[in-house]
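[audit] Reproducing an earlier prediction to check determinism. Same input, same settings, fresh worker. If the tokens differ from the archived copy the diff job will pick it up downstream; this log only records the rerun itself.
[audit] input (189 residues):
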Amino acid sequence: MTRIEVNIPEGTSGNFEIAHYTSETTDNMWSAYLQMKNESYNSHTVLLKVGCNMPIMQDSEAEYNEHQWLWNNAEGHVLIGGLGIGMCHQPLIDNPNVTAVTIVENSQDVIDLVWQHCAKDETFTLVHNDFETWNPSQGTTFNTVFADTWLTDNPLKQNEYKTIIIDRYSPYIDTPGAAASRIGFWGGL
């Protein structure tokens, strides 16, 4: 199994927390997650949000697999909705087909906890905005769009969220008519 381990220090900002969990952790249904996903690693960095009963992101094998669409399709200018714990950054840095990465994150608390500690290089740009409503600058195009911002506390159902993201970002895909194959979602939503 594969995973991308991140090294984000523990901390809390507003409604968000970075924690380090082990196979002995029982908080936030963690032991159930490990069993359900058949995780083989002992330690993980997790992102928690007040009101969510499980971590919203973790550097696990399952999370890596749930990003498979991104690993298979990332090229050119990549747009990512959601900073999370910065887990996808190093593979994008290592991918010679990726020329730029723009990340849109709506929570300043997540930015404060993660951005200074996650892997990034000069090709990365962070935008503090809501991925569901953000309007890129006129003339901006993307080769790949990956949406990883839907949480269980989102009032939209998953299919509604997917429709909104496709409608919002299709006009920014660099190849007209290719949006269906250039916009992907965490876990294959």
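[audit] rerun output stored. Observation attached for the diff report: The chain has a mean pLDDT of 91.
[audit] end
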